[in-house]
Design brief:
Number of helices: 7
Shape: globular
Radius of gyration: 17 Å
Helix content: 25-40%
Strand order of the largest sheet: 2-1-3-6-7
Oligomer: single chain
Structural class: alpha/beta
Distance between the termini: 10 Å
Order of helices and strands: EHEHHEHEEEHHEH
Length: about 200
């Protein structure tokens, strides 16, 4: 018998009816049709504040960390079995609002515990078993792959998940040259997402 997962779907794009929004809507609909429990968090629509305050930064080294300003975000992250991220890659990095979500929500006591004197930080997001990422880029694939060596994927895989949610499975899909996408290409890209999502989150 299949038991659905609790999935947190985080979307970060400022433009309504953007390609990322289309992909996010497609993902939400498919996950629900697969009987997963989907919690949607659109960072722009919710007006998430990405700016790490002085107090929050100082609290990074205090115990316990004060999460009172991000209670809802923490609850959604720590309750999820899987995480889906949909966002554009800008200048080969995260949109500021998504980077701020990592800065302010993936904090000590939530995503990890501080290291001992000589060891690595200790992961705490043991609840996250799978992470599915869809990102759009204006650049061609060879620039991201051969010149930059896929920096966003490396940060997610090695920096974030490697530090806070290991071991978990990662599926990362990049769509390149996305400044202009015609109807046929949109159809193909949505089909790719649906096929990959079905395989990745079906068990």
């Amino acid at each position: 018998m299949f038991f659905g997962m609790k999935i947190l779907l985080v979307t970060a794009h400022p433009v309504k009816h953007s390609l990322c929004e289309k992909y996010s809507d497609t993902i939400a609909e498919q996950l629900k049709s697969m009987r997963h429990d989907v919690v949607e968090e659109n960072l722009y629509e919710s007006r998430f504040d990405p700016v790490l305050s002085q107090k929050e930064r100082e609290d990074y080294y205090k115990e316990p960390y004060d999460t009172s300003a991000i209670t809802g975000e923490v609850e959604r992250l720590t309750a999820a079995d899987a995480l889906v991220l949909v966002f554009p890659t800008w200048w080969f990095g995260f949109p500021a609002i998504l980077k701020g979500w990592f800065d302010r929500v993936w904090v000590p006591g939530v995503a990890y515990d501080h290291a001992d004197e000589s060891g690595p930080i200790k992961p705490k997001l043991h609840n996250i078993k799978k992470v599915f990422v869809v990102t759009t880029l204006g650049a061609p694939w060879w620039v991201d792959t051969f010149i930059l060596r896929r920096p966003v994927k490396r940060v997610i895989k090695m920096g974030l998940l490697g530090s806070c949610a290991r071991p978990c499975q990662l599926r990362f899909i990049s769509f390149y040259k996305c400044e202009k996408v015609d109807a046929e290409r949109l159809k193909r890209s949505i089909s790719k997402i649906e096929n990959e999502l079905s395989k990745f989150l079906s068990n």
